[in-house]
Design brief:
alpha/beta, Rossmann fold, 7-stranded parallel sheet, 19 helices, 19 strands, 40% helix
């Protein structure tokens, strides 16, 4: 797993490397420039020498990194490079290393200016963005904002490489400071920053490349936020050849209102495709009469009773999808059982409405796998705040949710955030906009409930489920060529391919 750092933590890493370990700052800068230019050259391959480009350099050391790139670009045979200093235009406003790099360019006869124009961008094939780095945590001034907005008008036409982080993006939260560069690729330095993998970061980062730049991979402080990737899915739960359906657990899905019964169907389908041995839809007789004609043959039904969730054995339950807002008694019944529980949708809304009563019921389940899966609006209800507050810092939001409810929380959105009481936080980026459709969250609930019964820890089951869900959507998109028309039921069918990848 890759650690995700805040700006202050990255600043401490840099300080430790330079002051404690004695690595000269200019050495780190040279390696940053080498990594950036290598990424740029790889995009154009043998044609690179014939390209034209613009290097944008800001006043700090991120700008100095960009200026260091220019010399290396010319060494690669590309001599049609124009340098723009995004500032007041005086070299004295640069950092010390920025002045050093600009002096080298002057001795090499490489010109620079202070105005970025549409004509300059139109005539270029690529742009290096070195305006601001990870230290930015203020609103952009008007001139810089105008420069970034001009650059972004060409983001679909030109290859834009951002050094460390797209300029204007908050490295802690993944939210832009009014605006941010929409990069084609980001070459981040040393360690990955939190804001690159969640919130709106995905719309600005492009392809993400980590360049260690000779910084030792030993952190001088504890880290509790990690990027969970395919390589971290060490193995799937063992399925013995001499097994039977009871070995893989029984998932129960509560069906509620007729108008939303499709949600429970998708949850049941997700559980089946993810490996559950048995799946039963449970609800009132009226609800079951309505849903039965739509159920696959493999899914059973049972009428809800006071003893429904008291059976012994390997059981888990999904409650919330399609439940309806009159179902608190069912939610309470589920929470008072000793079965693993996945709560979503209406169950989360009801939990937020019940306040302290709901929190106490969840907290009592400390030793039983329990997961709340809110999207940002549901999360705002649980914390009594706004959606904007949740999205402004998703890491703080998921921490507050896990601490408040003393259970595992899965905060949906690009860069899904997962945390249990006391941490750590994990981020997964698998998935595409094909998941941005009603029903995809219901499908995920079924996958989660199935993995709770496969012999994994709660944390392992959640991480594996989110990975499979996102990867299945990506595989569907690869097959169809577009994620616009993806259906959750189609994503369910591609769980097989996602599992096959891991099994291989």
């Amino acid at each position: 797993m890759e650690p995700l750092l805040t700006r202050d933590q990255m600043r401490e890493v840099d300080r430790n490397a330079i002051q404690q370990l004695g690595i000269p700052e200019i050495v780190l800068m040279e390696h940053a420039a080498i990594a950036t230019v290598e990424a740029l050259v790889s995009r154009f391959a043998s044609a690179f020498a014939e390209t034209r480009g613009v290097v944008l350099a800001g006043p700090g050391n991120n700008g100095a990194d960009a200026l260091a790139c220019v010399r290396l670009i010319q060494e690669k045979g590309c001599h049609q490079v124009f340098v723009v200093l995004v500032q007041e235009g005086q070299s004295s406003s640069l950092s010390a290393l920025g002045n050093l790099q600009l002096g080298i360019l002057g001795k090499l006869g490489i010109p620079w200016g202070t105005n970025l124009t549409s004509d300059l961008l139109e005539a270029s094939d690529w742009v290096i963005d070195g305006i601001f780095g990870t230290g930015l945590h203020r609103t952009l001034n008007d001139k810089t904002k105008e420069t970034i907005e001009l650059l972004n008008r060409f983001s679909q036409k030109k290859w834009i490489v951002s050094i460390d982080i797209p300029s204007g993006l908050d490295s802690n939260t993944g939210m832009p400071h009014a605006t941010a560069v929409r990069a084609s690729q980001t070459v981040t330095l040393g360690f990955i920053k939190r804001g690159l993998v969640t919130a709106q970061g995905a719309d600005y980062v492009g392809k993400l490349k980590l360049a260690p730049i000779q910084i030792p991979r030993l952190l001088p402080f504890p880290v509790d936020t990690f990027w969970y990737q395919k390589n971290d899915v060490s193995r799937l739960p063992l399925r013995r050849k001499a097994s039977h359906k009871g070995d893989f657990g029984h998932v129960w899905v509560v069906v509620g209102t007729e108008e939303k019964e499709g949600a429970s169907l998708l949850a049941a389908l997700g559980a089946l495709k993810a490996g559950a041995g048995l799946v039963t839809v449970v609800g009132s007789e009226n609800a079951l009469d309505s849903v039965r004609p739509r159920l696959p043959a493999e899914i059973m039904t049972e009428t809800l009773s006071p003893s429904s969730f008291q059976k012994k054995g390997r059981h888990s339950v999904v409650v919330g999808p399609g439940l309806g807002l009159g179902g608190w008694s069912i939610v309470k019944q589920v929470l008072e059982s000793d079965w693993p529980v996945v709560m979503d949708a209406d169950a989360i809304t009801l939990l937020s409405e019940k306040g302290g009563e709901g929190r106490k019921l969840v907290a009592k389940r400390a030793k039983i796998p329990t997961l709340i899966t809110p999207h940002p609006k549901e999360a705002s209800r649980l914390l009594g705040t706004t959606v904007e507050s949740i999205e402004a810092d998703r890491f703080e939001a998921v921490k507050a949710l896990a601490d408040t409810y003393q259970t595992f929380v899965l905060l949906k959105g690009k860069g899904t955030c997962i945390r249990g009481p006391g941490g750590p936080t994990f981020v997964l980026v698998e998935g595409d906009s094909g998941l941005s459709k009603g029903g995809s969250g219901d499908l995920l609930c079924g996958i989660l409930a199935a993995q709770f019964l496969q012999g994994l820890s709660t944390q392992q089951g959640i991480l594996l489920s989110v990975y499979l869900h996102g990867r299945a959507s990506e595989l569907l998109t690869q097959k169809t060529g577009s994620d616009r028309s993806s259906l959750p039921s189609e994503i369910a069918e591609h769980l097989t391919a996602a599992l096959r990848e891991l099994e291989a």
